[in-house]
Amino acid sequence: MTDVVIYSSAWCPFCVRAKHLLDSKGVRYDEISVDGNPAVRAEMTRKAGRTSVPQIWIGQAHVGGCDDLYALERAGRLDALLQARPQTETH
Question: CB atoms < 10 A from the CB of 25, how many?
Fold first, then answer.
């Protein structure tokens, strides 16, 4: 299964909703809290180009936020994205 990273905040209902969808699919993810940590939020903003949480990556693909995650689910594309094999570097 592809690595999933979610930047989130404990006080964000959209973060809770996004994590609920991932949990319901049995997806393990790395959660990075931006609460009280401006440097982490700045890193997320630099990587995502957005300041709102959640910001979600599946593998190297920036999915976006909660609405984007649910849109992938409604379109039937989320499972395939989650099942994609991680790309490995060859030297």
Answer: 12
